[in-house]
Amino acid sequence: MAPNEFVEHLRQKPPGENPLPKRIPAGNDFTEDGWNKRLDFLAEQNITINTLLETALKTPPEELRGNIENFIGFCQVPVGVIGPIRVNGVYANGDFFVPLATTEGALVASYHRGAHVISQSGGVSAMCLTESVSRAPCFIFSDLAKAGLFLKWLYEQADTFPEIISRKTSFGKLTDIKTAVTGRNVYLIFEYTTGDAAGQNMVTVATEEVCNHIIENSPIAPLIWYLEGNLSGDKKASMLSFLGARGKKVLADIIIPEKIVRNFLHTTPGQMSHYCKTSTLGGVQSGGIGVQGHFANALAALFIACGQDAACVSEASIGITEMETTEDGNLHVSVSLPNLIVGTVGGGTHLPTARECLEIMDCFGKDRARKFAEICAAVAMAGEISIIAALCAGHFGKAHATYRHKV
Q1: Integer Cα distance of 287 and 152 in angstroms
Q2: What percent of the chain has pLDDT over 70?
Q3: pLDDT of residue 399
Q4: 206 exposed, middle or buried (CB, 10 Å; 0-12, 13-18, 19+)?
Q5: Which residue in 354, 321, 274 sits closest to 114, CA to CA?
Q6: Cα dihedral 203, 244, 350, 47 in deg (nearest 10)
Q7: Distance CA 178, CA 229 (A)
Q8: Domains of the chain
Q9: Which residues are catalytic?
Q10: What SS3 class is residue 7?
Q11: H-helix or E-strand spanning residue 10
Q12: What is the DSSP letter of 24?
């Protein structure tokens, strides 16, 4: 490409110079008529979406309000099932079959193997330790003195905030307000429990209600304020969330007998422990937050299958995997996941396939979110066990070549 052609390709082209196509019509119309208008519009553009329509024909557009805009159809991701995986948790206690949605060959087979090893060893112990979902507004003042006076007033008013929040949600409960001040910028970190919902919309609406009250009543007015100052860790890996909790913090561990490691994983506890330490050194050098093999694979597959917010994998997948050889030669494995943003009500959990996948694990509806979180941790551990064993035994590349090859 010639330099002048390259520059022309990248040059901004305003609509007055280069007219835009028509916009998608009826974007917020959830009636069948609105849906048909969008489909007709695409047809006029010579765009066909026959496969996207197949599942959509079974779901009235009205049922999707709150989940999607400009709706035209459903994409489909294959779902496999692993298990049984035995979980000895505080909330998840039993043997579970777990649905995983993915297009990555070898992934389900790997988790299925890890689940089998866990179950043969007596199951994974799991505990949902704590939970918190945050929103972090920022208030900017003309100088530090005003920022300090604002904080003093705020602390005096904090006892009134739970009642204000209750106007917007009966499930979200304010548990703490932390502050971070940089110069004349005051960040408030509102922390909530959100019941069985993932809760991100809930805490946004609740925090905005409190912020509006603050603006209307504070004797020290900020120059400007923002509902989110990017300190909550929303949709991103952060050290703040790693050290605390964003969503549900779950810990899990297991002791795998040496005989099972040899017979099912074709390696040894010593090799797996050594590799885990080696990978920790690599992880530290990469600058990652936490060190683990591939929590993201488990969580992405679970989140997509079960109607969770898939973008939360960016924060939920940080954590730590530890492996050590016990005094009697067995393998102790533990995983720590501090940021599991999951829900069993609200969001996409009501959609037909998501509900079915949650129901496979008896995790749909009220009083199921902590149970689901413990299962998430158990599945993440299954993947860690299997991938580290494959790397130790020299099977990692072969497995991908075998399972991802299209005949």
Answers
A1: 38
A2: 97
A3: 62
A4: buried
A5: 321
A6: 90
A7: 13
A8: 21-73 (no CATH), 79-128+248-403 (3.90.770.10), 137-226 (3.30.70.420)
A9: 104, 309, 400
A10: helix
A11: helix 3-10
A12: P
φ, ψ of residue 26 in degrees (nearest 5)? 55, 45
Cis before 222 (ω within 30):
no
Q: What is the dihedral of CA 321, 96, 195, 383, to 10 degrees?
A: 20
Question: Rounded to whole angstroms, how far apart are CA atoms 212 and 7?
Answer: 47
* Chain position carrying tokens 């106007």: 167
Residue 392 to residue 389: CA distance in whole angstroms: 5
Up-side HSE of residue 393: CA atoms within 13 Å toward CB?
A: 19
Query: pLDDT tens digits, residue range 182-212?
Result: 999 999 999 999 999 999 999 999 999 999 9
Count how many Cα atoms sit within 13 Å of the Cα of residue 22 in the half-sphere of its side chain. Answer: 10
Q: What is the DSSP string of 141-192?
A: -SSHHHHHHHHHHHHHHGGGHHHHHHTT-SS-EEEEEEEEEETTEEEEEEEE
What's the pLDDT band for 400 if we cut at 50, 70, 90? Answer: low
Structure tokens at 60: 């009235």
Query: Rounded CA gap, 131 and 141, in Å?
Result: 32
d(CA 91, CA 361): 12
* pTM to 2 decimal places: 0.94
CA-nearest of 55, 118, 109 to 81 is 109
Give the Cα separation of 207 and 4 in Å (integer): 51
pLDDT for residue 149: 97
User: Is residue 388 within 8 Å of residue 275, measured between CB atoms?
Assistant: yes
DSSP letters, 39-102, are HHHHHHTT---HHHHHHHTTS-GGGGTTT-SS--------EEEEEEEEEEESS-EEEEEEEEE-
277 three-state secondary structure: helix
Handedness of CA 111, 112, 115, 121 (dihedral sign): negative
The rounded distance, in Å, linking the Cα atoms of 75 and 55 is 8
What token pair was written down for 116?
A: 């089998």
pLDDT for residue 54 is more than 90:
no
Which residues in 313-371 belong to E strands, given as ranges?
319-325, 331-340
The DSSP letter of residue 197 is: B
